[in-house]
């Protein structure tokens, strides 16, 4: 398991032909074996499975700024969203082969099917069935195609017209829809592991390859693996699997060319173990060229992009993925004592999370891991043994801290880096320049970023993140601020994913800089926006991104759409986002006068059209209209005095509209109740008047369903209606009296409305209301406003209990116990 140096003593026989090194992609044992075999054979050229368009990019692997994990990215020039990745980690055999060749001055070349065919192949096969299972590391060249419709949820490979799925070996989709999946082709390592008596192919591979050296013969592991793969592929037809046969035909042609140039014994080939038997098979040049004839092509660009350990994981949906990239990176990188160093790293993580872990825990965990390996007949402790030891010793049997270890260390969030010399679209270069200037480094680990927009650097960061979101590059997502709700603060949740490099390439069609691209994209989105609400939301995003050049176009489209749209619901949906945008003028120094005029015009049209629009609505439409009323009320409150002279006091006019709604019988009860509640909260309606209106609605002459809807609008939802009933006993008494008088046949109809109304209350509020109703009517105080009305539901005042607190009150106020005191004047004595 240690990264020991192999001492090859067994020379390779002369005349053996090309050295075929069949590997498991992203396997540290394979990587060490490849390094030892290359050192023993000293080939004159190294051929590697990968797209040949990347040959000019190979020298960049020696750049001091290149830090794996990285990936080769190929995308169609005319359709950047159609792309494919070939990830490489530090412990990938292909990366080790590239580095060995560069260090020894030996040419390195990629020999897999060109990306120009791979990308076009996906376009031609858009009707193919989705893979039944992801392919494995032993038979997959590692390209994960990312198309426009690749789902956000990991583990869901997609094949459609926008992306080509996974161009992987052994992909059952290539056999045609409905073809049965061949388990040997899907996961040959699983078949070998099962034959060896293992139920876990990962564990079998660790025991056979990762934990063992070469025993002095650097070529022995590859010969054994080639023999095993040959046995698995004995039943293959002469031309093999469709995609396999084409790729392997191209590889054979490239091998022949290299043999002709450098000699038969001077060529080393590093490829997936699944391909080795086919590459060794004797085929004519004509037959191989016939398989390649007529392949579809697209123009493709290629570059290096950063990758992450998390995207190397099988759980991400990557066909050649591994379960533990962080663990494999540790095995490959440490010089010695890998178990001790790993458990020390685990202890450091747990201590950073305030877990009590000492050096004694590490010592005991190492002993337990070694004991478990011996009991299980394993040559050395593997990930299974170390995980069991960590759970038992450091986590006290709990899987909760163990999940943190798995997420942070076993998988990990290592993000690679590529040098500035790597090819990139102009937009990517401008983004990198802005990231350096704003000191905003991409990181694979999700983190929160608090921005103070009063600071120039933070304001620049905010502009960049908003512009990228408009371009579809979701590097950051807005989050709720924990420290402040002011408009001068923003909170972002940042996480860089490798796929964002594709999004940047796609966005490059809009411009060569982030500012120019975001401006052009905003103008195009404004013209294509399907609804008025979408345009107002776009205007808000333009203000947040400070796209001053795009705002005139957006405002023209907004004014034209608003003038033609007569639907009050559409206007009500559009107004809140527009009014929110006005708040950004103070912090961002943005001229919002045009927005103010449009917002005021929208508000006036809503005032005129809302009462007629609320007539004759069914239950669902009434519920939706209640939401629009709330949204308009909030928008009018924010709009305030921002409008220019000539529009009058919008708040006064809005209150007039609400009075009309509250008194019109044709308006649904839920809207009328909500209008009354808003007027009451704004101080435009006295409590006595609100109680009178409620009494009218809850009278026997009103249909129970309409009365229940009115109650829902008045005290339902998250509007604080529960506390209103707690503190205003008259309203609670009216509701209680009405509810007990509802006929039995009508009660079943109103019950869903009532449950929806009162279930939204906090548990404490519901409990208090229940206690008040249980006590029944009392002769105590009525509403806080005083006056006559229905009796409250609290118990009668207990004078003896009230007098018992007077000594304490005197003590608090510093009064003489013998001095007379008027109970009603206690509040004024201290003054």
TrEMBL record:
The biased composition feature labelled Low complexity covers: 127-140, 165-183
Q: Where is this region: Disordered?
A: 1-22, 127-184
Where do transmembrane segments lie in this chain?
none
Organism classification = Bacteria, Bacillati, Actinomycetota, Actinomycetes, Kitasatosporales
Q: Give the compositionally biased regions (Basic and acidic residues).
A: 1-10
- The entry's protein name is DUF5682 family protein
Give start-end of the signal peptide. none
């Amino acid at each position: 398991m240690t990264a020991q140096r192999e001492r090859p003593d067994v020379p390779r026989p002369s005349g053996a032909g090309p050295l075929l090194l069949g590997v498991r992609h992203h396997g540290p044992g394979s990587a060490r074996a490849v390094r030892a075999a290359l050192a023993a054979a000293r080939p004159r050229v190294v051929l590697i499975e990968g797209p040949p368009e990347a040959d000019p990019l190979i020298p960049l692997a020696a750049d001091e700024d290149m830090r794996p994990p990285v990936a080769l990215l190929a995308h169609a020039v005319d359709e950047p969203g159609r792309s494919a990745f070939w990830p490489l980690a530090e412990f990938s055999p292909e990366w080790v082969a590239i580095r060995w060749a560069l260090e020894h001055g030996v040419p390195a070349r990629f020999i897999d099917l060109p990306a120009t065919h791979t990308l076009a192949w996906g376009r031609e096969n858009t009707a193919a069935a989705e893979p039944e299972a992801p392919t494995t590391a032993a038979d997959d060249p590692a390209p994960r195609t990312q198309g426009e419709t690749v789902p956000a949820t990991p583990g869901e490979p997609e094949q459609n017209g926008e992306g080509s799925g996974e161009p992987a070996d052994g992909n059952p989709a290539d056999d045609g829809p409905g073809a049965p999946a061949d388990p040997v082709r899907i996961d040959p390592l699983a078949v070998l592991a099962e034959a060896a008596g293992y139920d876990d192919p990962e564990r079998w591979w660790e025991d056979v390859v990762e934990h063992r050296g070469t025993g002095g013969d650097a070529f022995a592991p590859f010969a054994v693996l080639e023999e095993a793969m040959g046995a698995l592929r004995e039943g293959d037809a002469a031309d093999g699997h469709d995609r396999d046969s084409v790729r392997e035909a191209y590889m054979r042609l490239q091998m022949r060319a290299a043999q002709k140039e450098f000699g038969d014994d001077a060529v080393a080939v590093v490829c997936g173990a699944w391909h080795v038997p086919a590459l060794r098979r004797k085929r004519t040049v004509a037959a191989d060229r016939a398989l390649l004839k007529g392949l579809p092509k697209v123009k493709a660009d290629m570059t290096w992009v950063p990758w992450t350990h998390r995207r190397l994981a099988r759980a991400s949906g990557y066909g050649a993925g591994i379960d533990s990239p962080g663990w494999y990176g540790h095995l490959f990188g440490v010089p010695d004592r890998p178990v001790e160093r790993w458990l020390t790293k685990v202890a450091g993580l747990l201590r950073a999370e305030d877990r009590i872990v000492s050096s004694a825990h590490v010592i005991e965990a190492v002993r337990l891991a070694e004991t478990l390996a011996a009991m299980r007949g394993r040559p050395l402790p593997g990930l299974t043994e170390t995980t069991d030891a960590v759970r038992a010793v450091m986590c006290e049997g709990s899987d909760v801290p163990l999940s943190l270890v798995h997420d942070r260390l076993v998988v990990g969030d290592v993000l690679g880096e590529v040098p500035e010399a790597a090819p990139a679209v102009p937009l990517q270069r401008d983004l990198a320049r802005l990231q350096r200037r704003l000191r905003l480094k991409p990181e694979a680990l999700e983190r929160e970023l608090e921005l103070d927009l009063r600071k120039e650097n933070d304001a620049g960061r905010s502009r960049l993140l908003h512009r990228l979101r408009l371009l579809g590059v979701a590097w950051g997502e807005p989050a709720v601020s924990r420290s402040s709700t002011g408009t001068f603060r923003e909170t972002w949740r940042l996480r860089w994913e490798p796929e964002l490099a594709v999004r940047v390439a796609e966005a490059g069609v809009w411009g060569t800089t982030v500012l120019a691209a975001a401006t052009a994209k905003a103008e195009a989105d404004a013209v294509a926006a399907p609804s008025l609400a979408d345009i107002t939301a776009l205007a808000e995003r333009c203000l947040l991104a400070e796209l001053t050049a795009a705002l005139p176009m957006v405002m023209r489209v907004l004014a034209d759409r608003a003038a033609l749209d007569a639907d009050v619901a559409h206007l009500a949906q559009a107004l809140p986002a527009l009014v929110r945008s006005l708040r950004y003028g103070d912090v961002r120094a943005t001229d919002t006068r045009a927005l103010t005029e449009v917002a005021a015009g929208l508000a006036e049209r809503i005032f005129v059209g809302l009462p007629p629009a609320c007539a004759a609505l069914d239950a669902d439409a009434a519920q939706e209209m209640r939401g629009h009323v709330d949204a308009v009320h909030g928008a009018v409150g924010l709009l305030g005095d921002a409008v220019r002279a000539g529009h009058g006091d919008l708040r006064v006019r809005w209150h007039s509209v609400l009075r009309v709604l509250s008194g019109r019988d044709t308006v649904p009860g839920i809207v009328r109740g909500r209008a009354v509640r808003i007027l009451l909260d704004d101080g435009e309606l006295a409590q006595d008047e609100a109680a009178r209106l409620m009494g009218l609605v809850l009278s026997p002459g009103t249909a129970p369903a309409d009365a229940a809807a009115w109650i829902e609008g008045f005290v339902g939802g998250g509007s604080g209606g529960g506390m209103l009933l707690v503190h205003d006993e008259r309203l609670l008494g009216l509701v209680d009296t009405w509810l007990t008088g509802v006929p039995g046949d009508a009660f079943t109809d109103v019950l869903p409305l009532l449950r929806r109304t009162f279930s939204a209350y906090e548990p404490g509020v519901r409990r208090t209301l229940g206690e008040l109703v249980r006590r029944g009517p009392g002769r105590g105080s009525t509403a806080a406003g005083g006056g006559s009305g229905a009796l409250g539901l609290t118990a009668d005042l207990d004078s003896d209990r009230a007098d018992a607190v007077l000594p304490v009150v005197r003590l608090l106020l510093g009064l003489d116990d013998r001095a007379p005191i008027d109970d009603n004047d206690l509040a004024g004595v201290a003054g």
